[in-house]
């Protein structure tokens, strides 16, 4: 089901913008902030055979997770053709899709890392993710982050509201990664993130 009622801001969240962003990330790499998050996600995946990373960029999370969980079938979806092409070059044995909607199938785990804040209607992408999740949905949200490509800024309060909204679908847990643990010294920037994990009924 495509996100026909969900728009990405044309002036910033377009393919040209994200192609340039992923090119920069490929050149400069990621910080320890991402590695701390990846560890939490890895520890909560358990025995998952099919995993979809929606908004995967050039597949950096899949690249690292596949080393530790090589038996799983991974699907990466991203808006940027440049990012998906790079992922295909590095990991041709996984499935890579250019787009902003899910294929017509379900996955044991669906992962959204720094995705919903880019949409004007994040509730729609969350509900689509729930529909395509068999077992677990993991959503990583930056807190108090007013970067210009974010139509919506999230706080602890509205993350807790999301947890309440998701409870009808299963057991939900929230993990707050505070500034003290997420300082990005390389970019002289504080990070706070909130991880929502939904285990479906």
Explain this structure.
The chain is 36% helix and 24% strand. The chain has helices spanning 15-28, 32-45, 60-68, 81-90, 122-131, 156-166, 179-182, and strands spanning 50-54, 73-78, 95-98, 107-113, 133-142, 170-177, 193-200. The protein starts with 14 loop residues before the first helix and ends with a strand. The chain has a seven-stranded mixed β-sheet, sandwiched between helices. It contains seven helices and seven strands; from the N terminus they run ααβαβαββαβαβαβ. It is globular. The model is unreliable at 1-12 (pLDDT under 50). It has a single domain (15-200), classed as 3-Layer(aba) Sandwich (Rossmann fold). The chain has 201 residues and is an alpha/beta fold.
Assign the CATH class: Alpha Beta
Please give the alpha-carbon distance between the first and last residues: 22 Å
Structural domains: how many: 1
Radius of gyration, CA atoms, in whole angstroms:
16 Å
How are helices and strands ordered from N to C?
Answer: HHEHEHEEHEHEHE
Query: What structural class should be given to the helix and strand makeup?
Result: alpha/beta
Give a count of the beta strands, DSSP E runs of length 2 or more.
7
Write the CATH homologous superfamily.
Answer: Vaccinia Virus protein VP39
* Strand content range: 15-25%
Mean pLDDT across all amino acids = 82
């Amino acid at each position: 089901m495509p996100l026909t009622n969900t728009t990405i801001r044309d002036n910033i969240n377009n393919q040209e913008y994200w192609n340039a962003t992923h090119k920069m990330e490929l050149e400069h790499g990621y910080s320890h902030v991402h590695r701390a998050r990846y560890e939490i996600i890895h520890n909560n995946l358990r025995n998952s055979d099919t995993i979809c990373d929606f908004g995967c960029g050039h597949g950096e999370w899949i690249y690292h997770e596949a080393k530790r969980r090589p038996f799983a079938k991974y699907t990466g979806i991203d808006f940027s053709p440049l990012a998906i092409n790079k992922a295909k070059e590095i990991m041709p044995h996984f499935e890579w899709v250019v787009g902003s909607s899910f294929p017509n199938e379900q996955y044991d785990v669906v992962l959204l890392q720094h995705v919903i804040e880019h949409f004007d209607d994040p509730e729609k992408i969350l509900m689509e993710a729930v529909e395509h999740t068999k077992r677990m949905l993991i959503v990583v949200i930056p807190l108090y982050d007013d970067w210009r490509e974010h139509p919506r800024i999230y706080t602890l309060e509205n993350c807790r509201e999301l947890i309440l909204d998701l409870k009808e679908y299963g057991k939900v847990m929230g993990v707050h990664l505070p500034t003290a643990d997420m300082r990005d010294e390389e970019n002289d920037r504080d990070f706070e993130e909130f991880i929502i994990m939904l285990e479906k009924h």
